[in-house]
Each structure stands twice: as C-alpha cells, then as structure tokens.
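REQUEST ID: PR-0412
SUBMITTED BY: lab tech R.K.
PRIORITY: routine
TASK: structure prediction, single protein chain
INPUT:
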Amino acid sequence: MLSRPKPGESEADLLRFQNQFLASRASPAVKIVKKADKRKGKEGSTDAERPPLQDSKDVVMLDGFPDTLPALTPVPPKKSKIKSASVHFEDEDPEERLESHDQHITAVLSKIIERDTSAVAVTMPVPTGDPFPRTFHRSEIKSEVQLGSGKKSIFAQKMAAKRAAEKAATAPSAAECVEVRSAAPDALDPVGSVGEAPLPGSRGDKDYDFLTSQRPCLITGEGLGSQKSEEEAQAIHKENLEKLQSMSEEEILQEQARLLAQLDPSLVAFLKSQRGNNEGQKKELKMELNRPEEFVESLPVAQHGVRSSLSMQESGLEECVRKEENMKVEIMDDDLPVKPRKEWIHMDNVEFEKLEWMKDLPSPRQKKTKKGMQARFSLKGELIPADADLPTHLGLHHHGEEAERAGYSLQELFHLSRSQVTQQRTLALQVLGRIVQRARAGEFASSLKGSILRLLLDAGFLFLLRFSLDDAVENVMAASVGALRALLVSLDDEKYLDWTFSWYQGMAAFPFVPNNEEEEEEEEKDLNGTEASQNKKLKDENNPDPDVARYDVVKGLLKTRIQHRLRYILEVVRPVPSVVLDILHILTHIARHSSEACSQLLDCPRLIETIVREFLPTQWDPKVAEPGFLLTSLHGIACASAMKFIRVLASGGRNATARLLNKFELKSRLSRFVAEEPVDVPLPREEAVRLSTEAFRLWAVAAGYGQACDLYSDLYPVLVRILQSLPELLSGKSPAVELSVQRAAAVVTLLTHVTQTAGYTAELQAKLSSNNSEDSEPIPPPPVAWSQVSGLQPFLETSLKKILQQLSQTETWQTLQPLTTTCVIFLGVYYSAYSQQPSVNPVDCLEELERLTSEVLQPLLSQPAIDSMWELLRPCSALCNSLSCSPAPESVGSIASLSCTGGKPPLSLVGSKSPFPFLTALLFLINNITHIHKGLTSKYSSVLGFRGLKDYLQQSWQTGPPSVTPSSAWILRHEYHLQYFVLALARRMAGTCPDYTQDASLHHCVAMALLSRLLPGSEHLAHEVLLDLAFNPEFLPEGKAGGPEAADFSDILHLGTSAKLAQPGSAAAFLPRVTRGALLRESYQNLPSIRSCYLSHFVHLQPTLMRSQASYQGQNYLIQSMLLPEVKGPILPSDWPFFPLISLYNKVTNAETRGAVLNSLPLDLINTVTWNLQWVLLLETWRSKILQSIPTAAKLARLMCVFLTGSDLFLEAPIHHYTAALLSVYCQPKVLDSLNLDAPLPGLASFHDLYISLLEQFEGVSFGDPLFGVFVLLPLQKRFSVHLRLSVFGEHTNILRALGVPLQQFPVPLERYTSPPEDNLNLLRLYFRTLVTGALRHSWCPVLYLVAVAHVNSFIFSQESTTQETDAARKSMLRKTWLLVDENLKKHLLYYRLVNAESPLGFDLYEQLPPMRLRYLQIVTQKEITENAPVLDS
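STATUS: complete
OUTPUT:
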C-alpha cells in the first residue's frame, strides 16, 4: 500500500510518489469524466464540436456521490405530464402522430356541450341610490345564513345567503306542498334508483324516508337537458318504489348487500352524505306526516318488516351516536362556565374536547391499586395526600396530568424550572428547596417509597441548581442558593459540632468526605498512600463533573468552580441578608469536606478578602443594634457566620491558618472582637455573643497549631476579666445564658491550647540551643512562656469548685456542663504540662495533686449525682444503642451528613442529659494525676467499682461491631475516648491494687473489642492498648488461676463435645504428643514476645501514629491539621490477631509472583508463626467471644496460610502442635455447624482459588502429613460446594494416594460427608471411576474411600423417579459393579450398610442384601440370584 505524503516532504518526494503510483498500475481513487455541454448536444458528440475552452475543463467524479447537488429542502420529485405522452416508436407514421396530437380549434369546440338555460329565470339588478355598494358586516352575514361545517370566506357567505334568498322566493309555499301531498297520499313520488336503496348509515325514524317523499332525494333530472326532466325523474322514482314494495324483506337485504359489494366505497359514502345533508326535504316530510303511525301501518307488511330489521341492525351505532351528542350537549350546557356564541370569531364550530379544561374538576379519590401514586407537593414543600380536596384558588391545579389532584410533581417542578418566565423559575426552585428541606428532616420517610434526595440527584438536580446560579436574575440566584443550602447543609449538624467543640479532642473532626467512593483500580493496590492519592486526584480531574458528583457532591461542585460564582454573588450582586447567610453556610460545608477543599477556597481570588472586608469589618453603623431595625443588607456588618466560616477554614491545616492570620489580617479582627464585651458590640445581643464565641474558637484553633499566641500577652487582661466573671453565670437565668456558657467554654478551650503550647516552650528552646547543623531545621519556640500561663489555674479551679456545688440541681448542671467539662480538661492539661517544666519543683507538683484529690475530686466522686451519671452511660451509649447513630432516612452516599436533623434525644451521647463529656474529662484528669503521682492510684479505685460503669462495659463489648458511617464515626470517637481512659486507669490499678483481678477479664475483653473498633486518628490509643493492655498478663488471670489445667481437664472429660476430639499426627514421626494445657502455659509465658511480634507487624502505621501522638500528647507545634484522616473503617481489621500470618503469606505470594527467591523471608519465621498461633490459641480458649465476629471459614482460611507459607514450615514441631490444637477447636460440633464456605469471606477474593492452591501445595510438599490432610478434607463435606469435590476427584486425583488420614485421627464426624446422598451425576461417575481404576483405595485414603463407597451404593440402589439419563447411569453403574473382578470392592459397593467409625473399614456391611435391593439387582442384571455370597472379613 502506497504511503500518503507527510508534512515536510518536498516536491521531489511528491514526484517520486507519482512515479511509484504509475509504475504500480493501480486504479485511481477518483475518475475523470468529460462532461458534455448541455447546449451542444449529447455526451457522445465529438471533441471538434466543442469550444476550445471545453477541452481543458475536467470534471472530477467521486464514487458514491451524485453529479448534481442535493436540494436544500426536501421536495417531491417533479413528474412531467408530457413526457409519458411523447413516447414514440421508429416505425410510427409521422403524419398519424401529428393527427393524434392535433390541437386545432375544431377539436376543442367539438367537445363543448351547452347548458340548457330555457327554464332559468333572469333577474335584473335592483337599482339603488347609493353611489357605491353598501358595505357588509360579518354579523349580518351570520344572521342571514347558517353555515355548515368548514370555514368560508365573507364573500362565500354572502353568496350563499343570496342563493338561499332566491331559492326561498321561487320555491312553492309550505302550505301548497302539504295540500298537494295530502290530496294523494298513496301516490308516492319516484325515487332515485340507487340513491334511495336502503343503505347502512341511516338512523332511527329516518329510515325509508323515500317511501313517503314526493321527489327523489338525490336525482333531480337536470342532466337530461329537456323540459320534462323532472317528470322523467318522478317516473323513475315511482318505478323503483313499486319494485321495492313487491320485494320481500330477505330479497331487499340480499340486493342491498349485492349493491354494497359492487359499488365503490367512496360512492357509497357520497350518497350517505348527500342524503344526510338534505334537511329541507326532511322538514317537509315532518310537516306532511301529521300521523306517522297511521302511515306506517298503511305500508305493506314486507316494508314494515325491513324497517324493523334495519333498525335492529343499527341500534348499537345509533345508541353510541346519541350518547356522543348528549355528552356534547351536556358539556356545553352544564359544565362550561362560559357558553360559546355563534357571533364570536372562530366559534362557529365548538370543539368540546378543547373546552373540556374549563369544566369543574372531579373530586379526587384514592386509587385502589397496589401501585403507588405520584407524589405531589404544595408550594410550601408539603406532601399532599392523594385524596385531599383543596380549592383551586390556592394555585395547586395548574398541571395537565391528574388535573383533579392538587399539587405539583417533581417532574412538573423540573419542567417549570426551565421556564422563560422568571417568576416561574424562581417559584420552582423555591418549592424544590423546601421539598429537600423537609425530606432531610424525614417528613416523607413513612409516606413515600424510595429516597427523594437520591431521585433528585439522579435526575440532575445538582446541576440544575448550579446552572441556575449562573442566571442573571437575582431572584433566580437567590432561590438556587437556598435550594443548594437545603441540599448540602444541615444546621442541626453544625449545632452539634459546635456543641462538641469544647469536648476532649472535640476540636478535631472527621472530614465530610463520603465513604462510598468508587473502588480503586486493581493496578493501584500496590501503590503507597502518596501515589494512590495522586492517582486518585488525577482520575478525578479527568472524570466529567457528573461522574465525580455521583459519588461526591462537594467535589463535583468544586470542579464546576462554584466558589468563584459565590464570590461574584457576594462581591458584585450583593444579595439580601438571607442569601448571604445561605452562601456562608454553603462555604462552611465545603470547607469541612477536606483540606484540598480548604485550599481551593483560599486560592479563589478575592473570596476571603470579600468575606473579611464585607462581613468582618472593624466598624459599622450602630443603628443595627437598635430594636426593630430592618436589616436590608448584611454587607458592611459583622456576622458570626462569616467568623465561623473562617474558623472552619482554619481547621483545614496550619498553613491555611497562617495564611488567614497574616495575609488577610485576621489578627486585628480577633483583637477587635475579643477585646470588646458582647454587650458593647453594636449588634443584637445574641448575634454579638455568637460573634464573640466564634472569635474565641478561631483563636483556639490557631493556638492548637501554636499560632497567634502572641495575642495572649496583649489580651491577657481581657482574658482574666472573663475568667473573673465566670461565677456570675451561676446566677444568670436569662435566655442567653446558654450562649454565654458556650462563649465561656470557648475561652477556656483557648486557654487550654495556649497552656499546651506554653508547656513545650522550654523543650523547644532547649532543642534550639543544642541544635547541630546536621539536624533538620529547628522549630522555633512559641512566643508564650510557662510563667505567663501558670496564673490561670487558680481562676479555673475556683470556678470549678463553685460549679460543682450545683451538681445536685439538674437544670443548672445541664446548662453549665459544657463549661465544667472544659475546666476539668484544662486542669488535666495544666498538671500534665506542669509536671514536665524544668523550673517546677516535683515535690510541689505532687503536693498540688494531693490537694486537688482530697479537696475536689474525692468529694466529687462520693456525691450521689456522680453515681447517677455512671448509670446513664448505658442508656446514652451509641454502642449499646446502635439506632442512635444510624443514618437518616434520606441520607445519600454522595453527601456526608451527621444525621442530626431534628435534633438528638436527650438520652443520647450528644444529648442534653449525656454524661459522656464530663465523665471523659474527669477520667482524663484522673489518668493524668495517677500518671504523675502513682501513689494516688489506690484513692481512685472506687471509679472502677461503680455498678453503672461495669454494666456499660459488659454490654458494650458484647455488641456486634458498629457500622462506620459519617453519622456514627464522630459519635463513636468520643465514646472510645471514655473506654480508653477506663482501661488506662485499670492498667494502673492492676499493678497496685491486689484485689483488682476480679474485673481483669472484663477489662481485657473491652480492650480487645476496642482494638478492632478504634477509628483513624486514634492510632495513639491503639498503640497504647497494644503496648500495655492487650498482651498484659495481668489482664489474663486464667494463666495464673489454673487455666491450662482446666483446658486439659476439659479435653479429658470431653466437655462441650459430642465425640472425642482426635488430634492428627505428623509426618515427622519423632514429634511427641503435647496437651492443650501445656501449649496454653507456654503461650502465656511468651506474652512479651508475642507483643513484640505484633508491634513489629504494625510498623506500617508509624506515620499516622506520629500525627496521632502529636494530637493526644498536646504537641501543638507538630499538628498539621484539625481534620482527622478520612474514615473508611477501623484502624485494625477485625481479624488482626491473624495479621502476622497473613503478612508472611502475602510476602511469599508476592515473591513467587515476581520470581524472587524465598530466602527474603524473616530469619525468625518459625518464631513469628509460632507466636501468632499461640496468641490465637489463647484467645480461642479464654476469649472466644472476642473472635466471634470473624467467620469460622475465615479463621480456617487464615490457618491454611501456615501450609502455604514456606515448603515444610508446617512440619516444625511448635507450629504443628499449635495448628493441631487450633484445628481441634475449630472441629467442635458447634463450630462446624457455623462453618460456611459458600459465603464471601472478608479479605479473600475466592475460597475456591485458595483451596486449589492448597491442593497444589499438598501434592508438592505434604509428605502425606495427616494434619495437612485434615485441612484438605475439611472443605469436602457434603453441604459445601460440589466444585471443591470435583476439583479433588477430577483434576487432582494424585493426592488420593497421599491423603492417608487415619479414621481414628480424623476429627470431623463422617456423617457430614456421607449425608445427604450425592445427586451430582458427574461427581458420582468420578467416584465410581476412581474406585474401579484403583486410584482410590482404602489403604491409601480411608476417609474418601468411605465417602465414595457410601455415595455410589446409595446411587446404584436408588429407585426414586428421576430423569432418563440419571436412571440409565445408575443401572449401568450397577451392572458394572456386578461384573467387577475385584471382589472386595464389589462387596463394599453392593453390601454397604452405614457409617461406623469404630469399624476398621469405617462402615458396616450387610450380611445379605435386603429383599428389595436383591429384587432390584435381579431386574437390572437379568440374572437369577438364589443366595448371596457370604461376606468375608475385610
């Protein structure tokens, strides 16, 4: 194939291409055609006849394209009327052709037929005195003549009226007609021959009107051209009538059918129409027939019979037409509020179907159907019941579908939102926003099927709002902003986040990132966290906006650059205050999404500048604070929502906070709003308190990074004044007291973080002084020293004592609880930092703690109100009451929500009566005191003795693992803090209190459950639990109190089992038998080594552990963000006890995949696997409920990794012993009943693939090990997938020679393999083939030999009705069995009776076949068997 020219090639290359083309003699892609000149004749004319220029003109023709251009508009092709007539032949005479086409005048005149005008009256024009003809008005015309159907011009109407007048003048009077016709009633006029035949379509009493008519209805005789034409027509009419009278009814019907079959249908229709339009004759007939009954009776019998017959035939059609006419009349007379008149323009033909909408609506009713009805909503967003009868003046009936029902459907509102009328678009968006608001509140959960929000988002509601934001009309923009705020923001969520801001670690929050994002691609699984995040970011950038918004709405909105549009609205449009507040709420929600979202908001040009300049000014008009002042614009006035947005934005990271403080001059704003009391701020009182509260919270966030601490020394007098005024809150009963308490709690939270920052000043100063040039860049110490914060403790301790005196007053205590919580947290932080200061005397610190314990904490713990708080832990717990943190009914996966809409009940973890915040702070303080002064530990032993706390811990760890969602994670995190501090206090109690052991098992169970539940961000707590609690021998009192001996005693007595648990032997014959008690004793002694093993395998969590430690230890200078890591699940998986074994298996698998040598495994591989098995054995024996959340199949799959890791690892003595001990645990009857290999297993793509790998490993390195064989045999039970058995008997039959597990060492009951009988024909054939060919023998594989014999015996003697193929197969198998040469196998297959584990064969045999089986065998084999051979001992 020749190449095409490319850019950059010269003319020489083009010539070379041309030569190559000519040499190849290929056909050209185009064809040159010499097109003929239409003016010069045909295409075949010679070139000499063409003009000179014609020779040089070439026409290029492309294949498949016409010569002429297509028409621009589709029109029908033109057909020539002359072309068909101009066809002639060569032998035709030209003269004849001329004669045939002669158009001479004589040929034309010969066809003229003159009309007879002899009887036509000549009228002269009427003379008038007017110079011009008189003008006509349409009303006169319509009154003169009644028009029929169809439109007529004014001239046509006038001419019709003129003709009617002339006809009336010349026609005889009605009286004369009646007189003539009454004189001779029997002399019936003639009728038109065909037109008067009885045709279908005549109705009612109009049938046979021709029998009484004087004149024909259709034929007038005018075409005869003579004066006697009317007489001729009358004669024909009379003749026809006489002939009809002489015919019978049947003959008339036959003739009628024959005529209808012969006539053209169009002609029949024409005759019907002419007869129907002849109304004048019908009027004459009615005037003439004064006695129609007598006239009908005078008719002949035949005619009367025909008339009745036709009436019966057409009665159905007549009834339908009458109903239609009645309906039209009914609609016009009764339902239409305005009756149409003939004088109205274009109302000459009333179209009732178009006027039907003017009728009164029928009353709505509930349809009795199983299908749901379409939801309709009012303009307030309320769901209107289907049978609600609302008046039409409410404006809820302006829709075509289901016109009788009030309200508008979502589809109609979507349609209205695209209207060109601004008010309609605005109304539609407002109603949709109200619907979303009510849907998120859960108002439609019990009334509607499905989710409104999910339906709206799938229909494109998000981008409808985004497009509406770009509208130029301010009302449309305002409506779309309100709807978007209703979709994204929950004000109740924000309220509870503000409520928990001052809790322990409450400043940190999880990002609002949906946890249902698309799964990563397979090739990204091996990437580290940084590479995976970069690939994910690149993928989001390449995906279209709708695809991104489908799983994350905020991310999709940011891709549409919504922040730029919102900035434009704030800066340029300057909307009303409500729209401004909605925009600030939307921006706050976006800032909570992630650190990346905060960065995009900060990078948006002029967004932060506009908000700070317009909504956080330093001065504004003081008239705003006046009561009754109408606020028309929020621009230029300080706003608490703007300060909150800046605070949430600062929580996104320390770099964002530094940019806000330095670039946008927020330090001056902080000073301005912190220094002035709320009563002095020219704002409404509540707004002023909120603004001050948000200012202190923003300062607290900055202090949490160690920033803005230089303001502390400048504003110290202000802070001290606030602290001195704290006791005044006790007597405050104003409605704003809760806001004042929140403000005071924010101040104490600020001081807590400033104290934390000051506590590390000396340490950082020392590092800076001793820093070497080789080290990394040093961290500068903060501008606040410990001496500047040491004076805060007396103020807060005094306030705490006064508040605690109100503990017995429930209402006052609930109001002051946030402030009390922050004061207790401050004391815990203060004493923790106080003990680490080099300038502080340790003795003074200990004395301070003793004084605090004796004066404050011990009296507090002895109060009855504290006891009731411990009792409230269980009712308010999210773990014990999982429904308290369940997602809202209308929650969607693409929008993160805390599901707080409508508020939380008082008895919930974040409710008003919750004891969790205060008790967590109290335990935090007690732990810090006992950590510093260990001698005070015994004085707090009463804390762990509260009955309410024990009940709570007992129930919390036994509940199933909670589902981790955005609505539950933020609540569970606070509950886990309390549990951790209880366990930390228990750890200190275990080493000092001798009577602690009674609760050690409970606390260990709580610690193990907490390990598998802790969420990202709490890695420090997980590390502490692993380090000090999980593997602490003090929390496993069974090791000291006779636990190993009890295990041995249980095995001896076979407690809890129905049969003896056999323990498989080993291929290594020298391995001694070891009891389970000895293994437990050894495991208990190796707990320190086990702990080291697990800690080393969790080293991959080190980076996140460092960030978590900085947060929990108060190292503010190391904290990078107040946003916690994204929540996708707990830190550790539920099967973390198997983690070292899984890690080693993955390492081996990855090495084999890459073709690497397996020497890269750790040198202490045997010890690692042994320690892992020891820990699992301890848990399965003494903490079995801890591992109940892990499926038994998953546990067995993890144990199979022992055989798949390394070649002969399972032959090592300790590994073999512990694996066999665990196998005996998993082979107990109850555990086997729970085993399900068909269900999907966590962390395992396919159990079948794992089992195939196990079979291949067994073929290669098993050495016939019985323990390995038991693991191969376990999945072959009858109730599991048949594919597992097919893989053994079909593809891996070689293992049958080495699978020699003795029946005495097999721990699983054999009935699980033989019952119920096998029904898979392919597997039965494989059973029979392996038995007959000798691949399966009792000496090689006794277990599967028994299984195969049992199923084949049951199959060949089965006489149940089945398919023809199965019946033929079992009879064939029975015949082959009868003809077997191997007598032992033949005996086993024919005489098998039932399973008997005590028998050497494993089953019993019949001495003689039962009569039924014997008879069936005789029928199948067609032989007489008189007696059975005796059964030999086998």
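NOTES: The chain has a mean pLDDT of 81.
REVIEWED BY: pending
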